[in-house]
Specification:
Layout: E1 13-23, E2 26-35, E3 38-47, H1 57-94, H2 99-152, H3 160-201, H4 207-274, H5 281-317, H6 325-382, H7 386-417, H8 426-445, H9 448-482, H10 491-524, H11 530-587, H12 596-633, H13 642-676, H14 680-704, H15 706-709, H16 717-754, H17 762-812, H18 820-855, H19 866-929, H20 937-966, H21 977-1039, H22 1043-1057, H23 1060-1079, H24 1081-1117, H25 1127-1137, H26 1141-1157, H27 1175-1180, H28 1195-1198, H29 1205-1219, H30 1223-1230, H31 1240-1257
Antiparallel strand pairs: 1-2, 2-3
Helix pairs in contact: 1-2, 2-3, 2-4, 3-4, 4-5, 4-6, 5-6, 6-7, 6-8, 7-8, 7-9, 9-10, 9-11, 10-11, 11-12, 11-13, 12-13, 12-16, 13-16, 14-16, 14-17, 16-17, 17-18, 17-19, 18-19, 19-20, 19-21, 20-21, 21-22, 21-23, 21-24, 22-24, 22-29, 23-24, 29-30
Length: about 1300
Amino acid sequence: MSSQGSPGEEFSTTTVSSVAVQAGDSKIVIAIIKCGKWVQLQLAESQPNLLEIGSNQDETKKLLHDHELLLAKLKALEDRVWELLQEADKTAQENKDQSQVYDAMAKTLGEAWAALVSMLERRRELLRLTSEFFENALEFAIKIDQTEDFLQNTQEFESAESLKSLLQLHEHHTKELLERSLALLNKSQQLTDFIEKIKCDGPNVNPEMIQGAQNSCLKIDSLLELLQDRRRQLDKYLKQQQQELSQVLQICQWDQQESQVTCWFQKTIRDLQEQSLGSSLSDNEELIRKHEELIIKAKEWNSAVEKLKSEALGILLSKEYVEKEHLQLSNQKLNWLQEEFGRLMVERKAWLKKANDFFNSTNKAFDVLGRVEAYLKLLKSEGLSLPVLAARHEELHREIKDCTADALQEGQALINQLASCSSRVTGVHEMMGCIKRRVDHLTEQCSAHREFALNRQQLTASVEGYLRKVEMSIQKISPVISNAMDVGSSLSESEKILRIYLELDKQAKETSHESEAAAKLLTEENDFEPDEVASLSSKAKWLEEELNILGQSLSSRSQVLQTYVAFLKSSEEVEEQCQGLKEFYQTDILQKEEGDAEAECHSDSVEKQWQLFLKRSFLTQDLGLKFLNLINMAKANEILNVKNEIHIMENTMESQKAEREEVSRLRIAWQLKAAASKPMKQQWGAFKEQLRKTTHNLKLLQEALMPVSALDLGGSLQTILGLQKKWNEMKPQFQQLSDEVQYIIKESEELSGKGAPVKEKSQQLKDLIHLHQNQKERIQDYEEILYKIVQFHQVREELGRLFRSRELEFLQQPKEMDDAHDAQVLLSRCREKRAHIDHLHKLALSLGVDVISSVQRPNCSNVSAKNLQQQLDILEGDSLNWRAQAEDRERALTHSLEFCTARDEMSELKESFKDIKKKFNNLKFNYTKKNEKARNLKALKYQIQQVDMYAEKLQALKRKMGKFENKTFFVNYPNNKVNVLLEAMRDLQKYMDEFDKVVTDYRKNLDLTEHLQELIEECHFWYEDASATVVRVRKYSTECKTKEAVEILLQQFKKFITPSVPQQEERIQEIRDLAQHLYGFEEGQKYAEKIVAKHKEVLESVTELCSSLTELEEKKGNVLKMNLNFEGFHDDCIDLLKEPARNKKTIFNKGRNKEQAKPADDLVVDGAGEGQLPREVKQLVPGKEGAVQGLLLPVDVLSGKEYDVKDGIKIFLSQLLLVTGTRRARNCLQMGTCRFYTRRQDIRCSFRRYARQMRASMWLGPKTLVAFSLPMSSST
């Protein structure tokens, strides 16, 4: 320590003594310095430095411990110092003269000691502070270590609570770190401030102390920085882990909330999926109320979901979160659950509403069913009839169905829609079961209408069964009736045919019973519906009419066949009897010598046979006439070969008559011979008796003819038939009398020859002959009249029947027909019947006229024909009336047929038009479905062919329509339907015109599309050609060695490409216009964009190529044009160029004319085939005559302009390379020029050879060649 002296004085200091104090490793040396009257204590040495604080707590504690010991030792010296001061006081008292000195010395020494002690006390305080600092640092370091251990240890958590605890631990560690750090910082600041204070305020400040202070502060700062770095790193890790844990906690809490929400939603969804819709209306309404409450509650949960979704969105959008996949999945799950919940809520509400409607409908149905049940009980007590009860029951049954239809339909719809979850509709099932059981119970009580319907069904089935049998019978009979009947060529065949017709006739009669039964059911029963009755009645009447027509035809045919078979059988019997009588009369003449009794008996037997023969013969004749009469009355074409049959029958009857007369002649001859065997007297007596009897019989015959003579020809048919019957019975008598008269005449002649007195009886004989002749003529006239009058009346009655039946048909049949087939059948049948009636009418008129003319004969003067004439007049009037009606009917049927035919034809035209239109639309649709690649030019052409085919079909249909329009037969038909038909025809014409326009427009569009595709193909061809040319030119440009070659190549390329670009742009513009016209503005622009883009691409490549060729030309212009090896040849060529221009032109023209005169077909190039161009030429030369002539030689060369020979050679070879691409030309150009020879003849020969190749390779157009010739002098 030192002390300052007085300001104005300078004192020299003298070290009186020094004191060393040591305690442990600490040691201080105190120097006692005297300076004049001042005595001071100065710290001469300190180990360690007073401001040394140590490196750690242990060192600090040791330093503090040593310093405490040092202070203790120094304190022990304090008494000596005070003793010294007391001595100084004593000395001062003793030496009062120096008391001032001693006082000053005592004072300074005391102050110095106090200062020294104070400094050491500060040192101790510093060490204490340092110890506390190191203690705080140690605690801070321990806390850092603990925190590091905490961070390093794996922190496991099982729940959000444990995670929260872990976060609290993080916060606790962070807080403690901050507290320890703050405490350490405060302590370090306190320590540093204390050191600075000691350093600045101490009396013994020296460099060593300052250095010690700096070292101590540096230690403090180093330790503090080290710990703070660790703290900051830990704080970073803590924040990071805390942030991660916070994220995890946030996600965990989000998961917990999401789990709660998910559980609620899942549970609610399960409930919504499984909850019943109720079992009654009240139950359903309660469920609806709960559902409304659930809707309110769901809003809260939906808000929670929205909150979770917003939190999830924030987490997902945050960059700090790493694990987001789980969150995304959960968020998606939440979204799905929310959507599913919303959907199920809506569905649940809808199902509840539908179930509510169902239960409401059910209650209403039960109310109605209750009223129905009460009404059923009332009906049971009234005892109504079955039809009335059936009507009431049907109404009730309909009411039951109507009232339960909605409920059952709604319930079944619910069950079907919720079939996958049947538990939800259990109540609906039960309620529907109740409804069905109630309905079934009431339906069982409402059985009258079912019984009535069953009866009606059975009746309908019975009627339909009858009608079906009638229809089947008609179908079986119709084919037989539709063919002409063959009466057969023999008895067996005729019997077989007769059996067939009798069987069919029997079947028709049985079928008529079925038809009558059906008609009876339809008329008697009232159980049928009106529409059903009308339909069945119409069908029954139609079938009945058909059956009647077939029955009549069968009856007439059967009658004809029966008559014909009876005639054949009778003819056979007559033939047998005739043969027997012939044999008898021819053979028994010689056997008269037998006994008289036996002969008499035999004669009587033969006489009986003769009588039977006469009866059978006349019966057969009557059958034949009847057969002829039936044939005459039959319909036209009803009997096969009718004329032949009539002729056969007439011949048969004539032959039978001849046979009868022959037998009669043989009998008379037999009787004459028998009488000749008797004595003359007996013969004469017998003759007289026979004459008397015959005369008497003839007179009786005259009386028998009186009824015939008094016959009224206009009488009834039955009277006339009775008279004819008697007449037929009298025919054998007529024949017998005729034979007797012939016998008497023959016998009188024989007796006269034998000498009998015949003259006595001559007058009587003459009278007999005259009477016989008159009777015979009368019989013939009467027989003819009877035959014809009977036939007339039969025809008249048939006509009357037909007239009546036709009038009935006119009344029953509708005037208009809606079916062409029915109209055609009725018209054919009407015409057939009219023809038959006309035939019968003519036959009746003919018969009537013949009868009237026959009555005019003398023998028939008594027969009255007045009524017959009246009947003829009546028949004529009826015929005229009927013919007028028939014509009207035929006209109506014809109009109906024409109308139906026109309508059907119109329908066919409509169907044809629909078919064409449908197929055409399908054709358009199928073509439209194709992609752009499939709709190529080939498919388009095929589509055009198909459209043309449909256009032709449409034109053919229009021609048919035109022909149909020309038919005006139905215009005058008095029916409003014609207007409908005409309207339909006009509509169809309108539709066809519209469709024709559609087809035409579509055809035009296809033509435009075809033209568009052709333009596109041309564009693509140009693009490919231009691109290929660009590639070739670029390839050739790499082989050009000189500027001239590049220049020629560029010129030729421009000549090829320049004229075609405007054409291509015109095509593109046309493509754009067509595309806009076909597809609209926007689609057309899009359609043309590809072509435009490709065009730009090609133009860019062309521009790029031209630029590259220009750059190459400029580049080649800077290169040396010739090699030194060709200098001598250059001089020779210069001499050649000095020749007059006239010679050059002459030579050139000669060469050109010579080459042009040479046919193109005779070209031969290096052994190649005649007329063949090299492949490069075919690629470069355009295909059209008007194409650009891209291979012309430079115009300057052809015009004879003077060129340097070397340049000309270069140009020639570059042109040759461009055209032919020959290896020699390439080699020459690669060398820079041609390989020149020293002799000019070689040069000329070489160029001639190349010129020939050039001429063969360059194609300028059709049969046009370009020749090349070098201008050379005649000397070369």
